[in-house]
Amino acid sequence: MRDAFPRTAQACLLVGLISVLGSGAGNAMAQEKKVPQVNGVDNSKMGPYRALAQHIYADFQKGDIAGASAMGRVLERLWDKAEDYGGDTALSKTNHRLFKEIDKAMDEFLTPIWEAQGKPPDPFKVKAALNAYLEKLKLAD
């Protein structure tokens, strides 16, 4: 009984974070199959990562490279914590090949944003990398 409260509080905090982050992401990318959503975030295993990526891309489109870069670090840290070191249900444990593919696609999307120094990266390359990343995420839903 003592452990129930911290777990519930942690779950509520995570849902709140996803709701706040997802509300600014909008529908940047159309989804082929409709997944139930809560506050614009797909209610699926990969939904929060998709919402963060869309939010990052929206910041990038507005010219907020610093904001996109910071949120990119958040995405990377959340991904690593949950899907690499997240226990038996982590994607790295259940499907290591797919985990590596998604991780690589995420890096290809985020690296140009992180490495932008005074000059924004090519928007077509960033968009293509985002689309590739989102397609890989669909494979894990």
Describe this structure in words.
With 141 residues, the protein is mostly helical. The protein has one domain (4-140). Helix content is 68%, strand content 3%. The chain contains 6 helices and 2 strands; from the N terminus they run αββααααα. A two-stranded antiparallel ribbon has the order 1-2. Helix 2 runs antiparallel to helix 3 (65-84) and helix 5 (96-114) packs antiparallel against helix 6. The protein is globular.
Mean pLDDT, rounded to whole units?
Answer: 79
Biggest sheet strand order reads: 1-2
Shape label: globular
| N/C terminus separation | 32 Å
Please report which band the strand proportion falls in: under 5%, 5-15%, 15-25%, 25-35%, 35-45% or over 45%: under 5%
Structural class: mainly alpha
What's the tally of helices? 6
**How many E-type strands?**
2
Tally of distinct domains? 1
What is the succession of H and E elements? HEEHHHHH
| Global Rg | 15 Å
Which runs of at least 5 residues are low in confidence (pLDDT < 50)? 1-31
Helical residues, percent: 55-70%
Instruction: Let me know the largest β-sheet.
Output: 2 strands, antiparallel
